[in-house]
Amino acid sequence: MSHWNTDGDERILHARGLTKIYRSGEVDVFALRGVDIDLYRSEMAVLLGPSGSGKSTLFNILGGLDQATSGQAWFRDLELTACSEHQLTRFRRDHVGFVFQFYNLIPSLTAWENVALVTEIAPSPMPPDEALAMVGLQERMGHFPAQLSGGEQQRVAIARAIAKRPEIMLCDEPTGALDSKTGVLVLEALSRINRELGTTMAIITHNAVVRQIADRVFSFRDGTIVEAVRNEHRLEPSAVSW
Amino acid sequence: MSVLDRKLLRDLLRLWAQVLAIALVMACGVATIVTSVGAYRSLDETRSAFYDRYRFATIFAGATRAPLSLGESLARIDGISAIELRIAKSVILDIEGMAEPAAGIVISIPDRGEPSVNRLYLRSGRWPDPARSEVAVLESFAAAHAMVPGSRFSAILNGRKRDLTVAAIVLSPEYIYALGPGDMVPDPRRFGVLYMPRSAIEGIFDMDGAFNDLAARTQRSARLADVTERVDALLKPFGGTGATDRVDQMSHAFLDNELIQLRSMATVIPPIFLFVSAFLVNMILTRLVALEREQVGLMKAVGYRSLEIVWHYAKLTLVIAAIGIAIGSIAGQLLGDGLTSLYADFFSFPFLMFRQSADLYAIAGAISAAAALAGSARAIWSVARLPPAVAMRPPAPTRYRSRTGDGRATVQVSQLTMMAMRHLLRWPVRAVLTTLGISFAVALLITALFSFDSVAYMVDTVFFRTERQDATLSFVSSRGPDALQAAARLPGVLRAEGFRATQVVLRNGHHRRRLMITTIPTNADLARVLDTDLIPVTPPPAGLVVSEHVASLLHLSVGDRMDVTLLEHGGRRAQARVTAIVQSYVGLAVYMHPEALDRMIGDGPRISGVRVALDASRLPDLYSAIKSTPAIGGIALQAVSRTKFRETIEENIGIMTSVYAALAGIITFGVVYNSARIQLSERARELASLRVLGFSRGEVSGVLLTELAVVVASAQPLGWALGTAFSWSVVQGFDSDLFRIPFVIERSTFAVASLVVLAIALLSALIVRRRIDGLDLVRVLKTRD
């Protein structure tokens, strides 16, 4: 199978015919209906759609957090949909950086320690100090989550995600719990990492403004991708607001 | 059903495992209250009723031979309400099919009518006929030999073998606990009490118109000390050996001992369980309320009053308590029945019922419910206090503190370990209480197991280091030194050591004690005296060697002088000095050198009996020789006592140990399982985040289990200390004039207690581990704390 598209971009993640059905009593709910998607090295992709449109389900399957009902998903040559629990853990540990809407920091660990939590188990991590510096938190690394603002907590989460030098970062509503100004700061951090480290980034959002900072935008509705658009002019996060 | 009640029901179903764990701990408290208080009451009330209805004496006295005419003067003593002048003699019983001779006491009863004191309960048969060699036999002995009215057996009465017919099977308040000579636990096979009409016994023992034993009942208002003094004065010319009250009566003293132990069990054990269950209820409710915070806010916002919400959560506590009380009552009832039937083996009551008392269940229930409510009060109160708007917002994130400054790890521990440690330190009170709960389990196990060590030590000391003879032969009356040679010539006797024993009252200032002085010859090998370091000592040619217990009772130390009243020798007084203090676990031991005692009594060298080592292969010959030797009034078989003692104690301890071990297991499981479950529900999101970040199941479980491991590990030394303290208090509780338990805890006991608790902790941890493995990663990430 080829990992390169016609433009010579290396394909990192791709899925074919992904379907996810949740059984709720007598009714089958289709969360995903045969989704095809390709994500390439160093691209910034935004997955846009209203809640319940299936973007988070796709994110969960691509991130090795959930199983598809049918269809296939690959990380390079690794077929995620055929992986064991153990292999998926390995995949998340070595290759994926996650950023969540509610940060998911460990309250009993300081900012520095939250990052070190990941660097201790990653194969070739960057020092926690460096990861925190990249998100502008070098001054706050001794603080516990409870002592940090929402934006700061999310930047710690980003630092934690990049510290393992992942090939792909999956960000689920990273600005969802933040105000516009703080949200922009977070997006700036993500954008910078994408540029400087060449990390493939997939951002899930229902905030249409965020589309402007992406290379490509996938629009979701009712479990399918209804539109995939390439941005000719990707904006800097500082140029957007909502 | 109101909506809130429906919610309550669902909460209970959702939390069923934790609810059950708490209810079980609580049930243990209720069960121990119901069992021990119930058994205490049953025993106490049965005894009182038996004593009352069968007119158990309050004063006992012995004499060599006193005329019945003395009865009138005795009955006139102020305070005495009834008096019985009896003939009581030691006998040897010859039972068919039983090689070794059994020891017995034969006591006179009136030819007609019932005794006015120490009446007999007639279980079956009819009163013996004075003309027909008939006897009434104590039920325990009759049962051990399958005797029924009409059965026949032989006894050596005053040196002559006689055939006796069982006319009646009886019970007596005087022999509820029937202990044979030289025995430490009752052996109904080898000890029997016979009752014979006075006119029959008079002739056999040449006691016409005389008595040697007195039992009297006193009026409630009587001053016992005055009465005994006057009885002594009257009996003195007739070889009176000093009157005593019930305290020194063997059966009564043993029962008292048992009652004291039951009472201490009822006051020590249940509070531990109530404490632990209150703590568990507190823990689970605090967590529940924290999780329900938003719902509580909503309930308040829509108009529920604080009181209604408080009542809702209080009901949860009360339902848990009700489950615990129900389980505990049933278990308590079963255990109480079991304990009662155990008593039936030991104590001969005409009736013994495990008494049902509603108040007991009410008290146990109320205490348990109150303990649970007290435990949950803080959690419930925190619900009531929250303003609705605050309650509906998620709680502020927990604040942790760093001890390293800039937050970078200075010590090389993994971040996972750091998480576990910080979490522990964040809730130190909870960590301490959890530790304390588990340490109680360790302590309970040690308290149960240490008795094996103590008894093993005691058996070793008593039977293998001090009383090493195989048997002790007692003479009908003291004899000259040639009796020792005669005894040594008996078939099968390998070695014989004579001894003299005499009843005395020792007085030091106002402390006094009635006891027996026994002699130990120089170079004694069979019966030895050990000092407090268990090294054999020979009593010096003058002075008294007293046991630690006697020394503490009479406030004596080496060199002190005391007053000795020789009860069997007309109450003559002498002075003696304490020359050594020695170890002894049974009775009130005081020893002298034979020459010293002979000198004190002043009737030349005499012996009261012989201790012998035996050739086991010639026992039948020896037994038949003893049965035909009139001078031998009794035989105590230490070898048989030893076995019987071990069996009885091991059976009792075995039962106790299993009960305690089960209780300890329940505590451990209750505490560890609940702690782990609560941590899991508090930290599910955190742990799931770790899984998402790529940590394996093992690593994630490690965070939770490390915390548990630290708590369980630190509970061990604390448990050892508490266990030592509990065991010490048990030893104190057993401390009586009858026997004392040495305070010995082997290292292996600590190890076994810890291993059991660790195993149960591990089991609970594994159950929780399965839940960690099943964490729903996706759902957890979607919700906010």
Summarize the entry for a quick read:
Chain B: One of its GO terms (cellular component) is plasma membrane protein complex. The complex is a heterodimer of chains A (242) and B (785). Helix content of chain A is 27%, strand content 29%.
Account of the 3D structure:
The complex is a heterodimer of chains A (242) and B (785). With 242 residues, chain A is of the alpha/beta class. Chain A has a single domain (41-67, 82-239), classed as P-loop containing nucleotide triphosphate hydrolases (Rossmann fold). In chain A, 27% of the residues lie in helices and 29% in strands. A six-stranded mixed sheet of chain A has the order 6-7-8-3-9-10, with helices on both faces. In chain A, strands 2-1-4-5 form a four-stranded antiparallel sheet, with helices on one face. In chain A, a hairpin with a 2-residue loop joins strand 4 (70-75) and strand 5 (78-79). In chain A, helix 3 runs parallel beside helix 5 and helix 5 runs parallel beside helix 6. The longest helix of chain A has 18 residues, at 180-197. Chain A starts with 10 loop residues before the first strand and ends in a 12-residue tail after the last strand. In chain B, the strands form four sheets. Chain B has a six-stranded mixed β-barrel with strand order 3-4-9-6-8-7. Chain B has a six-stranded mixed beta barrel with strand order 14-15-21-18-20-19. A four-stranded antiparallel sheet of chain B has the order 2-10-1-11, covered by helices on one side. The longest helix of chain B is centred in the last third of the chain and has 55 residues, at 638-692. The model of chain B has no long low-confidence stretch (mean pLDDT 85). The interface between A and B is large, with 42 and 39 residues.
